[in-house]
Amino acid sequence: MRTLTLSDIEFLIFAVRWTLLLSALAFAGGGLVGIIIALLRTSQQPLLRMLAIAYIRVFQGTPLLLQLFLVFFGGDLLGFGLGPWLSAMLGLSLNAGAFLGEIWRGAIQGVPRGQIEAARSLGLGYGPTMGKVVLPQALRLAVAPTVGFLVNLVKSTSLASILGFVELIRAGQLLNNATFRPFLIFSTVALIYFVICWPLTMASRRLEARLAQAYRR
Fold first, then answer.
1. How far apart are CA 191 and CA 168, in angstroms?
2. Structure confidence at residue 8 as a pLDDT band (50, 70, 90)
3. Is the pLDDT of residue 172 over 80?
4. Buried b (16+ CB within 10 A) or exposed e, 119-144
5. Nearest-CA neighbor of 159 among 5, 59, 19?
6. CA 183, CA 186: separation in Å to the nearest integer?
7. CA quadruple 39, 40, 43, 45: dihedral, nearest 10
């Protein structure tokens, strides 16, 4: 058993950068998938809605860890190894897309029906109606729950350690193997996660409060 050194702290801080980068890229990828899913869910075509519902049920109805495994080993089965980094990013993005799609679908459907009917009465088609009328209003409704989901996504990146990707949790495990100080190390890791997630949680609550005041007016 040895004491923690400055190099050990730097190792954890370096891992934080990978956690944040993985969270940002997974959120961006999930956002692209999510907007597609949300638009398909609100489409006038039954087949498109059914495809979106099937996607959501698959990714919300199975464990995220299992999805990461399928992406990681599926690449090898198809003849191209994605590696821990790409597997984690792709798996988290696909999973996030299902949840963001539902969040944004609810925001889209939360826009008053009269707004859509007014746009159509002006001769706007589906695309212009969504882009110029519905989505700008839905964005305001979706901001708070989207930020709340981002907090969960940051914590979910810890599952990437199972694939061998050295993010914050994996760095803590490696450091514990070298120092044999599990309580101190994992308490520090928990504190780092709290420092990352707490401001996001507070921002989400403030956004919800502002939206509530706006609706009261």
1. 11
2. confident
3. yes
4. beeeebeeeebbeebbbeebeebbbb
5. 19
6. 6
7. 160
pLDDT over 60 at 217, yes or no: no
* Integer CA distances (angstroms), 59 to 62, 66, 99, 154, in order: 6, 10, 8, 18
AA letter at 38: A
Structure pTM? Answer: 0.86
Please report, for the chain, how many H helices and E strands are present, in that order: 9, 0
Q: In whole angstroms, what is the distance from residue 36 CA to residue 49 CA?
A: 11
Reduced to 3 states (helix: H, G, I; strand: E, B; else coil), residue 122 is: coil
What six digits make up the tokens of 133? Answer: 């009328």
CA distance 54 to 3: 52
- SS percent in the chain: helix, strand, coil, step 5: 85, 0, 15
The C-alpha R_g of the chain, in whole angstroms, comes to 21
Could you tell me how far CA 56 lies from the centroid of its own chain? 14
Q: Which of 161, 159, 196 is nearest to 16 (CA)?
A: 196
Could you tell me which residues come within 8 angstroms of residue 137 by beta carbon, excluding any fewer than 6 positions away? 111, 115
**Of 91, 104, 62, 107, nearest in space to 163 by CA:** 91
Given this structure, which CATH class describes domain 6-216?
Answer: mainly alpha
- 170 vs 199: CA distance, rounded Å: 23
**Per the structure block, which two tokens stand in for 96?**
């996030």
Helices 46-60, 83-109: inter-axial angle, 10-degree rounding: 130
Integer Cα distance of 59 and 37 in angstroms: 12
